[in-house]
Amino acid sequence: MLDKQQLLALVDKHQDELVALCADLLRIPSENPEGDTRQITSFIVEYLKKNGIESTVYESDKHRFNIVASIGKSGGKKLIYCGHSDTVPVGDFDKWSFPPFSGDIKDGYLLGRGASDMKAGLAGLIFTMVLLKRYEIPLPGELTLAVVPDEESGGEYGVPWLLENKLIEGDGCLIAEPSSELNPTIGQKGSCWFTLTVNGVPAHGSLAPFVGTNAIIDAIRAIERIRTVTDIELSPPEELTQLLSVSNRYLVENERAVTTGIFEKITCNIGTIEGGTSANVVPDSCEVAVDCRLPFGTTYDDTMAYIHRELEQLGIDYQIKPFGFKSSANYTPADDPICRAVVDNISAVLGKEAYGVLQWACSDARHFREHDIPVLQYGPAELETIHGIDEKVQVSNVINCAKVYVLTAVDFLDVK
């Protein structure tokens, strides 16, 4: 059995292969909500096969493919390495300073849509499995790679589909979602997305506001009430005091002090507004898309009940329809074996103190916790570029994360 230094040396020896794999993934468009992952799925399956690893592909929805592959010894502990192959859309190509699907390297950064979220992390997971297989590193348990196609638009056809169909199982899970180098995310806020449709009565615009009912005006009133969710005072469970404290410490240490307290408050974003047909027609409909993120101390149902109570006071004609992400806040204890294995190996690789924190967004991690699988997230990222223009990731970060993945797999599966 190779010791840790020898394993790290193997990653260094093959780092060019890792970077090339990441670049190849970046060159394959896999934008969601379009959700077509045929090309990237074929590439990953072929790459695994070329390296002696057979995989099974499951089409959960048209052109959305899940990949499952395993190495190691059955009958022992089970570890899942999970990553999503889809990305958010590029948006306006003209705003990018480089081609979004270039996969080029410049000034020590890999460039392209999905570089940080999360094709670099996905490449690290695939590379880890290939390296362990190639050098026949003995694993006393089973390492399963799950590549899912549908995280960026709610995840219905990815992780939850695999779990509900009992196609993957584990004693722990690592998702290569973007994080800071020293701070994997061991918990996350919940999510509450919905569309608000406000109905009005059309009339000639020259007669407003004497006749008709303006749906846009009523929607503005509704938005003002909805946004008061941020003012709700909440009391998180006492057992989360330490996790909240270190998470707020993380914000300060990473120059995000302006967001201190975000883990204790409901946030509310008014994402889109659509309504009306013409300037001279009183609008009879207005639709608003809302994204609320929920801290510990409240639930999805609690939040929606509050919003309905507020809107009922306005006397408007409205409907609310949930969509996308829906969950309450969730976490994995910091002393869980999977958390300890990842955090300890981050410290070993980087030579600095690592600790787990909360995530202000949400991800596929919630599905694993719903199925009683401890999970955390750790992946390479240039956090400021995620979902934005000119997305990129530092090459050294990609390599260091891969080192953590290799060591974590060996450590976690070896612990009785």
UniProtKB/TrEMBL annotation:
Pathway: Amino-acid biosynthesis; L-lysine biosynthesis via DAP pathway; LL-2,6-diaminopimelate from (S)-tetrahydrodipicolinate (succinylase route): step 3/3. Keywords: Cobalt, Hydrolase, Metal-binding, Zinc. It catalyses: N-succinyl-(2S,6S)-2,6-diaminopimelate + H2O = (2S,6S)-2,6-diaminopimelate + succinate. Its EC number is 3.5.1.18. GO terms for molecular function: metal ion binding; succinyl-diaminopimelate desuccinylase activity. GO terms for biological process: lysine biosynthetic process via diaminopimelate. It holds the Pfam family Peptidase_M20. InterPro entries: ArgE/DapE, ArgE/DapE_CS, Bact_exopeptidase_dim_dom, Peptidase_M20, Peptidase_M20_dimer, Peptidase_M20A. The keyword NADP does not apply. Its cofactor is Co(2+); Zn(2+). Residues 186-317 form the Peptidase M20 dimerisation domain. PROSITE patterns: ARGE_DAPE_CPG2_2. Belongs to the peptidase M20A family. This is Probable succinyl-diaminopimelate desuccinylase.
